[in-house]
Amino acid sequence: MRVILKTRPRKKPHVPIEAEGIIPQNFLRKNDLTVYEGNRERNLEDLFFVTVEGPAVSPDQVEIILTGDTGRIKRVGEYMNAGRIIIEGDIGMHCGNFMSAGEIIIRGNADAWLGREMRGGRILCEGTAGDYCGAGYRGEKRGMRGGTIEVMGNAGDFVAEYLSGGEVIIHGNCGDLPGVEMRGGTLVIGGNCSRPCGNMTGGTCMVIGDPGELLPSFRRNGSTEVEFGGKKFRMAVFRGDVANRGKGTLLVKEEAIISRSGRDERL
Amino acid sequence: MTQGILIKNAYVIDPLSGIRGEIMDIAIRDGRIVEDALPGSEVIDAGGCLTLPGGIDSHSHVCGTKVNFGRYMSPEDMRAGRTSRKGVMHVTSGYSVPTTFGNSYRYSTMGYTTVLEGAMAPLEARHTHEEFTATPHQDMLANTLFDGNWSVMEAVREKDVKRAAAIVAWTLAAVKGFAIKLTNPGGTEAWGWGKDVSHIHDPVPYFEVTPAEIISTMIQANEILRLPHSVHLHCNNLGVPGNFRTTLETMDLAPPAGGDRQTLYLTHVQFHSYGGTTWRDISSKSEEIARSLNSKPQVVIDMGQIMFGRTTTMTADGPMEFKLYMLHHNKWSNHDVELETGSGIIPVYYSRKSLVNCVMWAIGLELALLAKNPWQCLLSTDNPNGAPFVKYPEIIALLMSRRMRENEREEIDPRTEHYVPLFALDRELDWYDIAVMTRAGQAKAMGITRIGKGHLSPGAQADVAIYPLKPDNLDPSVDYQQVMAGFSRTLYTIKRGRVVARDGDVVVEGANSTIWTRSRVPPEYDMGSDPEFTRKFDQYYTVRLRNYPVQDVYLPRGVCIETEAAL
Q1: pLDDT digit string (tens) for B101-148?
Q2: Closest B-chain CA to A245
Q3: ipTM of this complex
Q4: N or C: which end of chain B has fewer CB within 10 A?
Q5: What residues of chain B lie within 8 A of the CB of A137, using their CB?
Q6: Selecting from 2.170.130.20, 3.20.20.140, 3.40.630.10, 3.40.50.2000, what CATH number does the domain B55-450 have?
Q7: Do B75 and A141 touch (CB under 8 A)?
Q8: Is the Cα torsion angle A258, A260, A262, A265 positive or negative in sign?
Q9: pLDDT value, residue A262
Q10: What is this structure's pTM?
């Protein structure tokens, strides 16, 4: 089954839409889905042109395609457990919260909190992602626990905060403090970032670009070689965050450290 | 309101009036209980359901800066307990530290009409009073912290009880507080020097006074001022294995009672009844504590029961919270209040798999079961430190049903029974005991029976809770599930002659009052004109003395209990 949701023109296009109902399992049966526009409850048909093609007997046969002005739609794919959502443009905050299986493909950019507290499945963002991509909720001690998030462009600050399982791959640059408070899982940053992995206690983070000045609470622990994007890199291995009695692994390109200090002081 | 209410066929237990379960009618007019109802009164048929005076919580943390800090350091707590707007009810959220309206509605639907905030730092009284007005379905009282008050400690050092009493009188009137609260006396001040006090004869740095001296002096000051409540004490060494000795020594400090109430109120005693030397060999010493309690009618305690699950601990006991932080390595907040006190907050999870937590859980219940006189051991969880107050019905059911305790025994750490006497106790409390432990005992201990709290005799405030429980055809030791459900949700909660909650929904906008005390002292004991006291403000405080008192506008419906000090 293919469900095509095309946004209708709105008088106030900046008013956010909370659409946690847009998940494949909800379209199996014909039911009256509602979403919130600001603080008003609306029928799905009031805000979208809905086209349904073909049948489906289980949620994994459902594919939802969101097109039009989708940049202010929040919480799409929340608690999704099967099927696929394809977003042709940008998507608002909290896309793929708590998702446990299935796939979300975003052709444009994603706003903050992409895949927050995700448990499984896969999110691919072809543009850039906002802050807190693959992170936890405010105050909570565990963030994303499983699944994969791949961002082809850049991401904002606090990527994979409290990551405790799964994999986050950012091909571009990250902002400040990626992998902060990480306790498990894998974070790969293809570009640059600053202050990676503060307070980490577990998991692995790899920075292919320039990590800036590393936090002083990471201890050098040998070298290794990794492959990323078909190229091989010589990486320095750090353990930390020792300030937090952490046993995480941070891999940073050997040249990045030497070029910064002229020599490798940590050797 | 002039119309009045007539409650018919109520199964009334009113311990203060000596009524132990009689079917009777209750007439209400103008917010008071009266002999006869006016013709045309609204009739409520209770149909033989349990009818009690409105519930009173004598130790709870629901308002003030500390609670609010608990709210903003645990945003994840607000993910639980969300309710949307419904009739007059505001949106609420939060579980262990809910919004003020959340607290108020949940208390109200459980039949509680009066709540004492366990610890208000005098300097932060304005915030507390503002939150009181946003807790509209309970009359509120504020225990005022004096544990690390510099002026008080100096008076203690000079052995000048009268000056200590004068400082208390001025401060209570200034901040519209209700009673004296001592939290780890001396310890929180020592924490300002990076230390703690380890027993009650351990001197506080710089001030060179001991906790025992502070407690004794404050008890005397309290009696000089003739305050309605006694000194409300959170003992030293909270949560330290082996601390039961400190607690026993502290109980020995209480002088015999002169009047009809206790001279020392010990709060959350569960946290103070540990044997052993480390967390590995912690054991229950509830029997020793209960033995001492049973021989001292001048002491009243509350349980401070813990219940398994998530909650937030908050107390003015800064050093204790730091010790907890060192155990959990979770979030921690610590706060210093100028010349007065401090506080600490951390979120915790009490687990059935943790032996220590299981022992703690058992101790609270043991205290209630071993105390011979229910008037001396009141029900509390030290909300939210032991558990949020919404767990009270579960605690009541545990106390009333041995079978429920046995069922719980299967769930908890199997080693627990080697460390606690709980499972050897057959006692099951009855409805009367519960009525004492949840309202009458509190009213008596707090000395607010005289303003009509905690009883249903003519002239009393018309605070009534009708529970969907029929004691005549219900065996609490078997039907504990029903007991739990019944105490969670009243049929009617009536406050000051108005039905405020029905079947779990709050039905009116509330309007509470704040009860505070003022002791009249001779002019020479008025600290407002004392040069040394004023100098403290000029030299150390961030506010001047004249700006310190809370203005009347913060108490839209203040009720003042005036006493004549014997100075």
Answers
A1: 999 999 999 999 999 999 999 999 999 999 999 999 999 999 999 999
A2: B329
A3: 0.80
A4: N
A5: 75-76, 79
A6: 3.20.20.140
A7: no
A8: negative
A9: 54
A10: 0.91
